[in-house]
Amino acid sequence: HTCAKAVATGTTSILASVVFPEGKNEETLSLLNTIDKRVGVKGIGAVVEGIHAEGPLICDFGGLPRNSSEIGATEFGNLLDAMPGLKVMTVSPHVASKTNYQVIKMLHDRGVVPSLGHDRQADEQEIVDALSVSKTQPCHITHLYNVSKFHHRNPGLVNFGLLDSYPSLSKYDDVVAPTVELIGDMIHVHPLAVKLVLSSRSWDQIAFVTDCVAHRSQAHRTITYDGRQIKVDKENNVVKSCDDDTLVGSCCTMLDIFNSLINVLNVPVGKAFMMLSENPARFAKLNNVGTIEVGKDANLVMFDHNYNLMKTFVDGRMAFRTSLCRKKSVVSTESFDESFNM
């Protein structure tokens, strides 16, 4: 259902985000098996290209269900074996430090991207050590700002995520600057804070994600999420916990983020596409998508001159066509050329 709907908002590829609620190991393993069967399957809308595991090695949960982060190396290896489609895993540096960062090394060794996040507890040394595990494979940071810390004397993940390079101090000699992502609904992260990242980081090091967990049409309805009640705040396009209004996710789409980037933050169109398509694919090591090149999947989005979505193509086949196309027989080639000349 999600894949079929996603193409209507210009999304052609998806990483399925998985969480690990405590006491539901069998249900989680069953879900992983179901997702694994869908990885790479074409013909039903957007393609699930793999898994993003948001946990279980995290120490600050935010809107996620609680889980145990007490996992030994053998058990962790077994969990990775159960996720052959795993591309990215969020790990807290504070938790990873208890394994002497062995879990991050295991991810690197398997070609999985360690994404640091869900951690307000990690101190500077723990973050430095996590970022120094590999000199050739950079880590990523999961939804920068959210469930992480910035401090002017005691640096947190946000401090490290805001910089392409670090001061000339010996403690930073082995640190590889991480790539970063931001939730682009302009609610999880204020536009001023988004602008700060766009000003401080190279744009080829930034990606935007939706954190979408529900559709805005579900407003005024209560949804059960891991035994908790959540609700859609249609006015702000986000999803909150019914108990305490904690942000659980968003209702925004990649198309919403695109419009915010070009209309609110004045990002050039080509650079916006880079941060919505090329960069996310590269960060997740998805070599078959992200750019228009010979040999890659023919995933395309087509806009009119006002950047209204007209058509979505997945693997060379039209997966979505707006009703506007029935009124316009030709889509502006000028806008198409401008959009994709990055």
Automatic annotation (TrEMBL):
Domain Amidohydrolase-related: 245-317
GO biological process, alphabetically ordered: N-acetylglucosamine catabolic process
A single GO molecular function term of this UniProt record: N-acetylglucosamine-6-phosphate deacetylase activity
Signal peptide stretch: none
Keywords: Hydrolase
Protein known as: N-acetylglucosamine-6-phosphate deacetylase
InterPro entries noted in UniProt: Amidohydro-rel (IPR006680), Metal-dep_hydrolase_composite (IPR011059), Metal_Hydrolase (IPR032466)
Pfam families from the UniProt entry: Amidohydro_1
Domain of life: Eukaryota
